Amino acid sequence: MVAIIESRKFRDFDWLLTLLAVAIAVFGTWMIYHAQPETSYWKKQLIGLGVSSVVMLAVAFTDYRKLVHIAPAFYAFGLFLLVIVLIPGIGLKINGQRCWIGVPGLGQFQPSEFMKIPTVLMLARYFGRHRGSHLRFREMAMGGVILAVPVGLIMLEPDAGQALTYFPLLAVVLFLSAIRMWLVIAALVVMTAVVPAAWVVGTQTGLIKPYQQERINVILDPENADRRGFGYHTWQSIVTVGKGGLTGSATRGDASQSKLKFLPEPHTDFIFAVAAENTGFMGCVLLLLAYAVLLTKLIHGARRAPDRTGMLVIMAIVGGLAFQIFINVGMALGLLPVIGVPLPLMSAGLSAILSTSVAIGFAISIRLRRFVN
Amino acid sequence: MKFEDETQNLKARMGVIHGLVFAILAVLGVRLYFLQVVNGGYYSERAENQRVRLLRIPAPRGAIFDRHGKLLVDSRSTYNIILSREDMKGKDWNELLGPLSEGLGVDPDLLRERLDEMSKQPAFEEVTIKEGADSADLAWVEAHTLELPMLLVREQPQRRYPENGTLAHVLGYVGEISPQQLKQAKFKDYAENPYYPGAIIGQEGLESTYDRYLRGKDGYRKVEVDSRGRIQRELETVAPQPGQDLVTTIDLEMQLAAEEQLRNSPNKRGVIVSVDPRNGEILALASYPTFDPNLFSQRIGTPEGRKEANALLRDPLTPLFNRAIRGRYPPGSTWKIPMAVSGLKQGAITVQKSNVACGAGIQIGNKFTRCMGSHGSPEVRYAIKVSCDGYFYRLGLKMGLEGIMQMVDEFDLNKRTGVDLPHELVSWTPSREFKARFNPRDPEWKDIDTVYASFGQVYDFVTPLAMLRAQMAIANGGRLYVPHLLREARPVSEIGPFAARPRRGFDRPDPKLIDIPAEQHKLVIEGMWQVVNAGGTGGAARIEGFDVAGKTGTAQVVGLGKDVGKNKDHSWFVAFAPAHAPEIASIALVENVGFGGKFAAPATQKVYMAYVAKAHPQLAPAAAPAEAAKKQAEAQGVGHQ
User: Fold this and answer.
1) What's the angle, vertex CA B292, arms to CA B289 and CA B296, rounded to 5?
2) In Å, how far from its chain's centre is CA A356?
3) Which of residues 38-97 of B touch A (CB under 8 A)?
4) In degrees to the nearest 10, what's the CA dihedral of B594, B430, B409, B524?
5) How far is CA B62 from CA B76, B197, B495, in A?
6) CB B450 within 8 A of CB B404
């Protein structure tokens, strides 16, 4: 019996997805090495990758339904961590943000990264019941509450970038839970109308401060905006990306933008620029394709999920990953303002790679159980 | 899907999300294409620009030598320790005072003064902490780069000029190019070896005239820097090409002799210039008082140096002023020589009958202008020998203003000599316009004005060099050379990317020719010979065996009878030798001392002795060898003090 289960598990295990995730992470580690060859970030990332792989397998071979069942416990524990990280002495303050908890002997971790998993599970658990009708307002409000509590705590750190990445989780879950289409369309229409209007009103009345306007100007015209001040990160990132050309400069032997410290935060926020500089357009397109295949694989898994809960878990993960990729790469390419969001599987950081691995582990676990019911 | 139902068309909604994912990735891909493939070259260049810096390696400036190869000016490398304002932002000056004054041995009060001054300066200006840093200072700075990153070492080639102001007006000096100069076409449009802000250029004298020869071509270090401008590695080094060495026409020993004469004169003011009348080469050019050009090349960057320079600028005795080309003086009786030559040429007098009455003076209207003596009706040689004013009053009247103006024009006395020094002035010479301007209350030109103009007063104001140029042409029979100081700019061979630079000579060697018939010429030369050798007014210039010919001049500075004290007459002497085959011609002016024969003539004699000692040692008096040896020793020491 055990053997039969094992062999079926082995056959149904999504090897391609696993390998793709590991391959992107290995590529990421290589880029971290390029970004900071003299530091130990890439070694730490390699260790993180090893740990993450084990955790990913562990999650994959665990029945996700059991985990969803006890999701409230995870959620509560996550909230507890988000509270204690705010306490000086436990939470470490880095660059003005108190979002790290130091663990003696292990380094430090970021509760806001991990909190995404329980949030996704809680949302899936709540919205995963059989649906016979359109989404009711009460349900939407409940979803809002599940999201608002961790996001509120994260905003206290404050880490707006990380908080932002929570919204697509709810958006996807609501979208797939029979929210009325006119609500979606209305929301889109209101947004496209309100944002420019707010900009005009804000700049006219002075509610949007000059330095905030400057950040937007940087995106509109990075070369002529304040290249030494607000525009510095964006401009240097664009130069670094552009410099990579078609095939990248890794083989040309001249010192890289990150090595000469022109590119800030090269191993975390701007890891994509490092990859662009070193591997060029070819490498970047391959990376984007890898993400496309990875996300497509996940969506396929969601389509075959044994239940709504599993489908929602995977799709929320897809939404979260796609959103982070867009924000991070868009920032590196000068399309979006600088927001500190890690690039999934690429940016250095144990918390980020571990939480992404757990998420992918869930997806594999759900797929493994597609015929069970 | 088992959980799908009619109300939610879930499949389509998942398709929308899938489509959004692809759309997002496609947008990023398109943006990447534009950044990397379309504009990759542009951004590559931008990255290159911020990573690569060219650091200038200043080229050594050419040295300057005298005609016999004695070193007059050279450059040596010195190091200054400067404070970068960029790295000082937001730091407290006062914290630096202690460590800096201790580490570099700078007086803390002086340091505080400089730091205070810095706060008033524009932000881009550097502050020099210490000039002429030695190797211990450099090592100290090197060792403290981490704590004191604002300290920088700047190599500065420094020009060394002879001590005691020797040749100051000839050599000039170097200094930093000014923002105004950078806008002038002369500097802005010189693409071959571009001038740049902060460049050291010749500001005066030969340094200025021949700046393009003297300046080398700067090399550079191509280095890679990080975002904070710290050098990461050397990429390429291109060695500079030194500038061309100049060999001047100056004979250092004659120059020192001339300066010694002026230094020992009663007022220590005047000019002595000697040229070779066979080609216009200037052998000595002394103008007193003089100044120390090292002030401008070495000390001008310090507050003390600036104070010193301001004092020089305000000095009423104008030591910065090259009197030979910028001083306009009435030439007194030296004017009579071109008058005599032109009088003969124009037929006012003839070789056969050159007698004109002296009359002890001349009566024009109700004004009598007297002569110093009563000379009867002398011929021209005698009139020159005794400097008879009455003779030349009447000669001037015979020639008329037009004749005098023709003479002035023929001898180029109304033009610049073209000497290769900057800022030469044009002499003032007699003309109706000049009188109208000079004396607007009585603008009409009258006979009395012609009388004044004919003996070198009132309407004649010449620069010593213009006068010497005319006298030199009279000495050599009519060849009006351009007096000049450049013998050659030595060639420089090709170095790296810099092409070889060829030898250069003076670019206007051909003289203007004045037709002076031989017998007329002989007559005037004989008169000048008699001035020195036959009991004339210039006996003090006589050298046994070296036929010196000359003419004294005593120029009134103010009206007669007031010529005492600081208003005393200027003492002139023009001369050349040997009289019938001249090798040397000269002019000497000693300001406000009195009679020409008493001061300028003996000064000229001393300078000629220095020439004779070298060129004709057999003529030198017995005592001369020892003296010459002493002079030689002095001369050799001059550039190396």
Assistant:
1) 130
2) 7
3) 39-44, 46-47, 50-51
4) -40
5) 11, 20, 15
6) yes
Best probe of the A interface among B21, B34, B52, by most A CBs < 10 A, is B21
Question: What domains are there in chain B, each with its CATH number?
Answer: 53-160+210-243 (3.90.1310.10), 252-640 (3.40.710.10)
- φ, ψ dihedrals at A249, nearest 5°: -110, 10
Quick check: B639 pLDDT over 50? no
pLDDT, tens only, B181-230: 989 988 888 888 889 887 889 999 999 999 999 999 999 888 888 877 77
Of A244, A291, A311, the CB nearest to B36: A244
Which residues on B lie below 8 Å from A262 (Cβ)? 47, 50-51, 226-227
Residue B312 or A160, more confident: B312
Strands B246-248 and B64-65: parallel
Indicate the domain borders of chain A.
10-368
Per the confidence metrics, is the pTM higher than 0.80? Answer: no
Q: What is the pLDDT of residue B119?
A: 66
Residue B55 pairs in a beta bridge with: B221
Q: Is B24 in contact with A260 (Cβ distance < 8 A)?
A: no
What residues are paired with B495 via a beta bridge? B498
In this complex, which of B5, B46, B224 lies closest to A255 when CB atoms are compared? B224
Cβ separation of A242 and B32 shorter than 8 Å?
Answer: no
Rounded to 5°, angle at Cα B304 from B301 and B308? 95
What is the ipTM metric for this complex? 0.92
**B624: pLDDT confidence band, cut at 50, 70 and 90?**
very low
Residues A131, B28: C-beta atoms closer than 8 Å: no
Record: contact B2-A319, CB cut-off 8 A = no
Taking CB atoms and an 8 Å limit, are B32 and A325 in contact across chains? no
Q: What does the alpha-carbon distance between residue B153 and residue B214 come to, in Å, rounded to a whole number? A: 25
Distance between alpha carbon B582 and the CA centroid of its chain, in Å? 28
